[in-house]
Design a protein that fits this description.
The chain contains 12 helices and 10 strands. Helix content is 58%, strand content 16%. A hairpin with a 4-residue loop joins strand 3 and strand 4. The protein folds into 3 domains: 171 residues, no CATH class; 53 residues, SH3 type barrels (Roll); 83 residues, Alpha-Beta Plaits (2-Layer Sandwich). The termini are far apart. It is α+β, with helices and mostly antiparallel strands.
């Protein structure tokens, strides 16, 4: 004869628990509803912040906060509400344990989502979302994958640790795997981080005219691995991001003016009075060109065949064509002014002095010989 089993009535025990803890359940439900309502409102506000900033084509701190708030998940809200109710209602130990596990999992995953959106939003704010920052758009997918893998791996370790699992071996395995991947793809990661360094530090941006080594060109594209320039002679120059940052870069678009140096030499036969006029004549020549500011004109020293000068002036423009036009105009003005005052430019030459049979010097210039 089969033994008689008493039927299990879980609904009756639940009802009894609800009746015994009705005050705690009601208070917990009210608090949970209020908190969930606040999270829903914050989520809606975050979505509106993102929409407004996107419409304004500007990414500010409002968008950073909006992105984080807008990514609050419904599952996290539900688990937060259940955990609040359980806190006030004091359920059985087994139920409380299950609620704690569920909330830990939900909170770890939600924390990873918030952290990911915060990091990506800060990157977007620092770099910019404009069309000129094409490298961010190219790198966005890879950055999202890398950040997501790292954060969700941390969240998984936290969840397993809270569940009582020994995660020491797992963390060690992840560390060894990360080192192996890093060594295998160190060239790719090196150029990727160099591209991010260019976007963050902004030594140049798309459209700037830069010079490194003997190459001068306009930046056309900042990619994940290479930066492409259009040389002044027309061809495209492709340079690795890592190697490019290792060089000294001159950015001609940064600054409000360009300083130009014009060295020249005058013949030694120029009189001291004429040499004294050179500074004022050069200043007048520079000031005759609109947009140019005289800095100085000074004697550098005595050269092999000339008295050497240096003329410095500033062009209030960073456009290379405008700077070249200013240089041409200043040179022509100096030539005209010196010609009017009889001041002669020197060129590489040697003067030979000979002696007559009686031992007297034969001067190479007729005027000097007549004076002697």
């Amino acid at each position: 004869m089969a033994p008689t089993l008493n039927p299990i009535r879980p609904t009756q025990s639940v009802l009894e628990w609800l009746i015994a803890n009705r005050d705690g359940v009601l208070i917990g439900a009210a608090v949970a509803a209020a908190i969930v309502a606040l999270m829903i409102v914050a989520r809606m506000i975050g979505q509106r912040m993102v929409e407004r900033e996107s419409a304004a084509a500007h990414f500010g701190w409002r968008s950073v906060l909006g992105r984080v708030l807008a990514r609050t998940t419904i599952s996290f809200m539900v688990m937060a509400a259940i955990d609040i109710v359980a806190t006030y209602a004091e359920p059985p130990a087994r139920a409380q344990h299950l609620v704690d596990i569920g909330f830990t999992i939900a909170f770890a995953l939600q924390g990873a989502i918030w952290a990911r959106e915060l990091i990506l939003a800060l990157i977007a704010r620092r770099v910019g979302n404009g069309e000129t920052e094409s490298a961010l758009n190219n790198a966005n997918a890879i950055i999202r994958v890398l950040v997501s893998v790292a954060l969700f791996a941390i969240a998984t370790v936290v969840i397993l640790d809270n569940l009582g699992v020994n995660v020491t071996a797992l963390v060690a395995g992840l560390g060894i795997g990360g080192i192996a991947i890093g060594l295998a793809a160190q060239g790719i990661f090196s150029d990727l981080f160099a591209a991010l360094a260019i976007l963050f530090d902004k030594p140049f941006k798309r459209g700037d005219i830069i010079q490194y080594d003997q190459t001068t060109g306009t930046v056309e594209r900042i990619g994940l691995k290479t930066t492409r320039l259009r040389s002044v002679t027309g061809e495209q120059v492709v340079m690795s991001n890592t190697k490019l940052l290792e060089r000294e870069i001159h950015n001609f678009n940064v600054g409000r003016s360009r300083r130009t140096s014009l060295p020249f030499g005058l013949v030694y036969q120029t009189s001291p009075d004429d040499l004294d006029k050179v500074m004022s004549l050069a200043k007048a020549a520079v000031e005759s060109r609109k947009g140019c500011t005289f800095v100085r004109c000074a004697i550098l020293g005595f050269g092999p065949s000339s008295i050497d000068f240096e003329l410095l002036y500033d062009s209030r423009s960073v456009d290379l064509n405008k700077v070249a036009g200013d240089r041409t105009a200043v040179v022509l003005a100096v030539l005209r002014s010196f010609a009017e005052h009889g001041i002669q430019f020197a060129y590489p030459a040697q003067t030979t002095f000979t002696a007559a049979p009686d031992g007297k010097l034969v001067m190479p210039y007729a005027e000097l010989a007549k004076a002697r």
